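Re: that chain you flagged

S.,

Sorry for the slow reply, it's been a week of failed gels. I finally had a moment to sit down with the sequence you sent. For the record, here it is as I used it:
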Amino acid sequence: MMWDGIALFSGTPVRRFADGASLGSGGAAPGPEPQPRRPKVGLALGGGAARGWSHIGAIEVLRGAGIEPDIIAGCSIGAAVGACFAAGKLEELREFSRTLTKRRVMGLLDFHISGSGLIAGERLRRLLERDLGGSRIEELPITFAAVATELGTGHEIWLTKGGLVEAVRASYALPGIFDPVKVAGRWLMDGALVNPVPVTAARALGADVVICVNLNGDMRVRGTVIQSHGAEGADAVMEAAAEAAVALPGEPRRWPLLGARRPRPKPRVETGGPNGIASVMIDAFNITQDRISRSRLAGDPPDVMINPKLAQMGLFEFHRAEECIELGRQATRRMLPEIHEIIAAAVAPT
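Prediction finished late last night. Pasting the structure tokens below so you have them in one place:
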């Protein structure tokens, strides 16, 4: 029934509007339907020296899949890659990484014996200044934080404002290798000492979904507790391993405990020392990174963890950038279905 432009339905006058909306008796025109809000995506980029080139591949795959990070929290090499991405210089960083050779890497290291580390870091600073000089963290189009550790106190420092280059340098200042960096009155060093994969920082900066790239997830370091270890019994252990070896007729003896075929040697106790200072430092860094990473990630796990297969990549093999970038791509592609699912589940109405 129509009357003067008003439709009567169930005895209630309803006014029809041009856009199809209606106004009931005594009511107001409803507003537009609430639109779903895209969740803020945070990316936590972990430390791991040369293995950090895989961050480039991870970011490339995420962006190619339509996943644009809103927040970047980086530690050590993760801070360097994250800063370049936030400043729109990821392409330049990728091209630079591909030009590195063993000789050029050595040429970038200005060794000295008078400082707090083996490398002054001035050549690397000039390299960063070339592309990032003048950039300030608070002016970046993406929310960014570099994680560092304060010398002396052990405070975890989130660098969220100020000069971008100095923040990155402070975050990768590995003790004993690079000199600490003074930022706003504090002497800072590598953030991997306190938070190797800064999921907590990304979440605190407002991320609804946190994706982390853990450069140590594929490491073979999985230490446990060896109880009641002593000097006695080493010969007995080797003898037991030898007795456990089995051989088929006409074949070399197999060593199941050592995973190789070899003649049965006489039991002996290894008396040689570590291989050298570089080997010891790398092992110590790997163990420290693994233990701290596992502890921090257990306390505040990410929504998605990307673990590139980097066990065979040396900490200082920066010349293997192309290989490392591809490993980052592969690991991220494997996780894309889960990433899309979690982001879709996090969509909420405004």
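What I noticed first: DSSP finds ten helices and 18 strands in the chain.

Talk soon,
D.
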